[in-house]
Specification:
Belongs to the MIP/aquaporin (TC 1.A.8) family. By secondary structure, the protein is mainly α. Helices cover 64% and strands 0% of the residues. It is built from 9 helices and no strands.
């Protein structure tokens, strides 16, 4: 018994502290990234800051442009008698994806590039922004969306715009409202999860260690392509001295 007690004592002395797990492990020192502090629920000082209103304007303009381009694309496809004569469904998908890519790139440094009340709501729940800023963003996003759709309505005409439901989503025939709800939940989960992953401080720190890959890799690939084309394809011999 004494031997066993001695072994237990030695083990306790060898590992005097419990190793933290889960969220507790994130508080350890020596991290190669800085975790931003949670945003306060209310931040009155934001209301006197120009950057606060500039961010809201950026969200308004980005959402305006997003709705304007995408709805106009949908209206153009619907106006044609054949989708093959237009950009078609793939063109609509590209307009949505391309606009989000461009607008997030342009506004990420100003407002975070939310361009969607769902994204703002998710980031608010994660304490990434205050309630004051979240409400302001959502209001500006909704106003931008209304103005973007309104401009398209003015271009296309009230009758044509209304007959095609303004390019709005609807539950397709053969599917129930529950199906539509499930699709919206899954799609929004993927969107907001992508936003969280792309803006995570730990991910940014990890990726910051390897950007040289995206310089060396393309240059090496370009050099190999040039060598292959000149020597193999065109059979140009090296000059001999």
């Amino acid at each position: 018994m004494e031997g066993k007690e001695q072994d237990v004592s030695l083990g306790a002395n060898k590992f005097p502290e419990r190793q933290p797990i889960g969220t507790a492990a994130q508080s350890q020192d020596g991290k190669d990234y800085t975790e931003p502090p949670p945003a306060p629920l209310f931040e009155p000082s934001e209301l006197t800051s120009w950057s606060f209103y500039r961010a809201g304007i950026a969200e308004f303009v980005a959402t305006f442009l997003f709705l304007y381009i995408t709805i106009l694309t949908v209206m153009g496809v619907n106006r044609s008698s054949s989708k093959c004569a237009t950009v078609g469904i793939q063109g609509i998908a590209w307009s949505f994806g391309g606009m989000i890519f461009a607008l997030v790139y342009c506004t990420a440094g100003i407002s975070g590039g939310h361009i969607n009340p769902a994204v703002t709501f998710g980031l608010f729940l994660a304490r990434k922004l205050s309630l004051t800023r979240a409400l302001f963003y959502i209001v500006m996003q909704c106003l931008g969306a209304i103005c973007g759709a309104g401009v398209v309505k003015g271009f296309e005409g009230k009758t044509f715009f209304g007959s095609h439901n303004g390019g709005a989503n609807f539950v397709a025939p053969g599917y129930t409202k529950g199906d539509g709800l499930g699709a919206e939940i899954v799609g929004t989960f993927i969107l907001v999860y992508t936003v969280f992953s792309a803006t995570d401080a730990k991910r940014n720190a990890r990726d910051s260690h390897v950007p040289w890959i995206f310089w060396v890799g393309p240059f090496v690939g370009a050099a190999l392509a040039a060598l292959y084309h000149q020597v193999v394809i065109r059979a140009i011999p090296f000059k001999s001295s």
